[in-house]
Amino acid sequence: MSNTIILSGGSSGIGLAMAKRFVGDGYHVCNLDIQPSAVGEHYLCDMRNFTQVQQVVTEICAKHSVYALVTNAGIHLSANIEDTTEATFDDLFALNVKGAYAAVQAVLPSLKARRDGVILVVASDQAVVAKSNSFAYNLSKHALASLVKTTALDYAPYNIRANALCPGTIDTPLYQNAIAKYCSHSGADVAEVHRAEAAEQPLNRLGTAEEVAAYAAFLLSEEASFITGSLAMMDGGYTVR
User: Fold this and answer.
1) DSSP states of 79-129 as a string?
2) pLDDT in tens, 179-219
3) Which of 109, 114, 125, 145 has its CA 20 to 30 A from that of 200?
4) Tens digits of per-residue pLDDT, 6-24?
5) What percent of the chain has pLDDT over 70?
6) 165 phi, psi to nearest 5 deg
7) Considering Cα of 56, then 145, then 209, then 89, what sign does the dihedral take?
8) What percent of the chain has pLDDT over 90?
């Protein structure tokens, strides 16, 4: 099948919104996730497992004409460097960074043979700015920014574009869980924390998963054919303060 998109972490939150948008736009979506989803063709895959990721991506490329890879799977961690254990650090990097590295490496032969295609890495506003109590997560998102920039340069001769989509604070299950954990540990009021998070954004609200999906669809389209190596911000103005 032509114009297939490989999407990791497409069963919830931003990933699910993207899967729905891509299917609506006529793409065949192959969703790599440990959780099932009714949207797209599901492949049970733990993005922490380098060998499994490469095997699944290679299998999909053998079955379909892959146009794009969108790496979205990731986890959040609120902790400074002293409170980050080696095991926690390794687990976060295995998913947020090594999973993306495995998928990008595995899809490139197919995109090179096609001499066309897009790699879109979902990063974060933390790919360009620092936030307190976010040591390992922030570091992982900066690593993804570097992955995108070097890949964009190395594979431009094959007409392969690589960009990072950098959402700010988006109202997703990941966000809701992070706030719940923070309030549980600190004793802060949940509603007040949500209001404070919205007030941090110049637009005075959080983004939605559907808005991120719409931006992703644009970055995959021919309308974005001259965009590569970009850190595409979508943060309500947060990083320009």
Assistant:
1) B-STT--HHHHHHHHIIIIIHHHHHHHHHHHHHHHHT-EEEEEE--GGGTS
2) 998 899 899 999 999 999 999 999 999 999 999 999 999 99
3) 145
4) 999 999 999 999 999 999 9
5) 99
6) -95, 125
7) positive
8) 95
| CA 105 – CA 128 distance, rounded (Å) | 24
Q: Which of 94, 92, 219, 228 is nearest to 167 (CA)?
A: 219
- pLDDT average, residue stretch 116-141: 97
> Tell me, what CATH number does 147's domain have?
3.40.50.720
Bridge partner residues of 69 (DSSP): 6, 119
Digit-coded pLDDT (tens) for 45-77: 999 999 999 999 999 999 999 999 999 999 999
User: In total, how many domains does the chain have?
Assistant: 2
Query: Known catalytic residue: 101?
Result: no
Specify whether 175 is catalytic: no
d(C-alpha 206, C-alpha 157), whole Å: 38
- The single residue of 137, 155, 175, 215 carrying the catalytic annotation is 137
Shared-domain flag, residues 199 and 213: no
The boundaries of the domain holding residue 143 are 4-170+208-234
Question: Do 148 and 121 meet the contact criterion of CB atoms below 8 Å apart?
Answer: yes
8 Å CB contact between 162 and 119: yes
Would the pTM of this model clear 0.85, i.e. be above it?
yes
Which is catalytic among the residues 27, 141, 175, 215?
Answer: 141
